[in-house]
Amino acid sequence: MKNRVRYSAGVLLFLLAAGAIVGGIVWQQASKQADWQPFVLKPTTYPETTGSELAGSYYLDKIQPIFNRRCIVCHGCLDSPCLLKLTCYEGLLRGARKVNPDATHLFAEKPVRLFDQPSVTAWREQGFCNVVEQQGPPEERPAKSILFRMLVAGTEHNQPPFELQSLEPIYHSVNKHICPCEQGIDAYLKQRPTAGMPFGMPALTVDENQLFSAWITAGSPGPTAEVMAQVQQLKQPEVIARWEAFLNQDVPLSPLVSRFIFEHAFLATLHFEESPGEYFRLVRSTTPPIQVKNDADGKQVVTASPVHEIKTARPYNNPYLKGVDKFYYRLKKVTESRVQKSLFVWQLSDDKLKHLDELFFQVESVAGKSLEPGYSSQNPFEVFQAIPARSRAQFLVENSHLIVSGMIRGPVCVGNLATYAIKDNFWVFFVDPEHDPSVLKPELGLQSWEDFMNYGLEGNAVYNDAYFKVLDQYKPTGYEINDVWDGNQQNSNAWLTILRNETNATVLRGRQGGIPPTFWLIDYSGFERLYYSLVVNYEYYGSVAQKLDTWEFMSRLRQEFEDNFLRLLPVDARKKYRDLWTRGIGQELLFRMPFPGENVGEGLEVEGTDPISGVLSQIQRQFTEAVSGPRDLLNTGNKPDVKLTDPVKNFADWEAALSTLTMRTQLKFTPFLPSNTFIRLTKGEEHRVYSLVANRSYAFNNVVFDENGARQPELDTMSAYHGLVGDFPNLIIDLKIEDASACLTELNAISTTEEWTAWKNKFGTLRNSVAFWPMLDWLTDWNFQNRQPDAGYFDLKYYMLLESKY
């Protein structure tokens, strides 16, 4: 029999509960239910008991750190399994529910966001069940708590090494969760004894289980009011005061500008250089902005009302709800744990504040256009007419990483169907607002603003016809190299690298990962249409018909942006590359898309026989490395003269050998490679971190349910990166320098599933191994030490199981 520690559920429950009681850590809850106020949970208050380990910040110091490292790897997002979100105490109290509004359904559901309901009772009315028992005799609470019983089941069945076969069927129907609240925890575990937590990963330690036992026995207390007041206290209130003052100016254009900024940043996490380590969300609130003044003695006096967020389904919905006569834009401090998959940071500073003031307030508003941010319209082209189109376009391109991140890191964190609307690897450029036809003539000659946002095939054709007429008017010879925005040769938002990783996507600034197969050139009106369709107007809780409409519109926008880039190519090369980028049935579906053919512009004059390389060379020269970043030696086209079998003695040897495998087609192993692989390479006491990303090729991306039918595995490639790229690692490799040559040599030799499995088992850190948590903890610590302020906890929902078939 394999050596493993085994416990029966009854024995473990007895030992842990007894340990808690004997240790004198049995508490009784002072109140039956934590009180709620609108929008914000009040921390539970417990009687002060001298010497008690559970008073004050026990939850934040002892319990939440375990959730962070062991639980929010799956339960950290809006669409977590059973909707159990453990990034904060409020999510724990809300509990779990089966029905997922992001799943496929004929009719729209209601959105389910953590702070939408005013009380736990309201969540219970929506079908959420408690996962920790807070009532009844203290010694019985662990046995009656779903959370603890699932941890016990994990302790029984997930002692490394344990079998993984029983997990696989669950990943074939990931949105059909069966939650313990439906049938009771006893029946649930009897039917699924191996479904303990952490799911399919090594169990918690005995010490960690004892912490949970003691805490649940005590009534699962949260942080006290005093502790939460300290957590929510602003370190630099004057910084926040400056920004809230900017967003609530008493000038005519301010409400419209603030609405524009809000609708483009409502999903982002804001971080300020002058207040490092603090994170905020931009919200609409019924309470006025913070005020910071100095008294007669020069002492700082802070006047601050709590943020009472106005919750609406979409950011453009009317905030004047019942009882709301006036609202303000406020910065709400984020205190819950940050998960990498939904975290995207808008890095701000006093310099950016000054620039935003110049961009929006040191210009004349458009004469004759309404300054009122009325909420009768949801169309950005109509609503924001009074803000000069140049200012709006400049904001988008200067903050393109923010805007694109909103599209790919929204509240729903897993969705391979949605991501299939884009290709696996491409670069994005932008039309310079000074030369952009949709900036120079914002109406584009259209009869109605609705024509900008018509998602239908006919409506899109009307928009395209109007756009191309204006383009021909302003650019009769087509786009030139100076029409591509260069970021003023300092802003890396001018050049984005986009990676699709099957269930999710990643956006990077600058030229990364080697030359991809396709490219986008985005104009202002197209960028705004893309953002509003995928973010502001998108309803993750919507019907399947609504989601398909959005998906089809995204497919057409992708084609428009690819065609825009093709306009830079010589005329006689355009059709060749369009046919190459979209093959088979995909070409038949493009019959309504205007094509930049022989009669549309002249394109750039390029040197050599490869027009793509010629265009990219001109872009690189204009942008400089300040925008693109340094030359990417890991993914270079000029491969070094080394062999995989050569000894790898140092990190330079490793990078040279690795680069011989990157961005190459016709390799046998690439179809087996998972989307994201993290590698820790160790030489002596020194560690370096790398990421391998699989770039899968598809003949077309135009048929929503035919992803596998479009596969071209022989054209798959692998790209490599310094550091950690991607939020969902599918495999982690802990590699010593002396094994590096064998690792790459054997990887390159893989051509069958059996060979891939053997390689993965040899070099990978398996999710059922003793080494799994220590390795992940090391990478998590590296992430927080090296990627601030953009660091969060990784997602492991598909670790070792997402290999193109789930």
From TrEMBL:
Species annotation: Gimesia benthica
Protein name, UniProt field: Fatty acid cis/trans isomerase
